[in-house]
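Hi support team,

I submitted a single chain yesterday and got back a structure, but I'm not sure I'm reading the token output correctly. Could someone confirm the output below corresponds to the sequence I sent? I've pasted both exactly as they appear in my results page.

Thanks,
R.
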Amino acid sequence: MASQPIGFLGSGQMARALAFGLVDAGLVAPGQVFASDPIAAAMAEFDRLVPGAQTAQSNRAVVDQSQVVFLAVKPQQVRIVLSEIKSHLTEQHLLVSIAAGVRLSTLAEWIEHRCRLVRVMPNTPCLVGVSASAYALGPKATEEDDALVKRLLSAVGYAAAVDEKLLDAVTGLSGSGPAFVYVLIEALADGGVRMGLPRELAAALAAQTVKGAAEMVLRTGEHPAVLKD
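Hi R., thanks for writing in. Yes, this is the structure output for that exact sequence:
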């Protein structure tokens, strides 16, 4: 279990998925999770999904009570949130940004280089422990930070360190990829229904088929084209 308290600035879908996954994997106790969000409904859903998590009254309070802080707000809100917490950040903090498209150099400038940074692109299947995530270390990040982030992300799926220049491609592939797979599953299921299968059975068969095909790729190491043939 991680010894550091973990904070979430923002309690939207990705923050909830990460927090649930980390608690479910036993890497952090619910009482060591702190979260803030100005939207009451989002905070209520966070509390429902991660019972026992601590609701903070402000972003600053999350930072004050956490050593690892996930920046989980929309890209257009990042600068505003960082301006609120900047003075509360210290060299003991590790700020992990999951805000798509906001570069490490920009984050460092906005917090005046006060703490260590890591930029992460996770995806929502971390909610069920099978995410695909990539992360890039900031210039001040240490080997210990690398190991910690990989351990946290690996608890909810697959994680790999990459050069920051590759994160935009990761965003398009694994960040947005689940939505394309859901379209595929829906299409397969619709085809089954059209041929007379009950909707529930068709959806289950379609989802299991996609899951099985993915496992074949991962376990055999074969190129998908070989398996297709």
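A quick pointer for reading it: The chain has a mean pLDDT of 94. Let us know if anything else looks off.

Best,
Support desk
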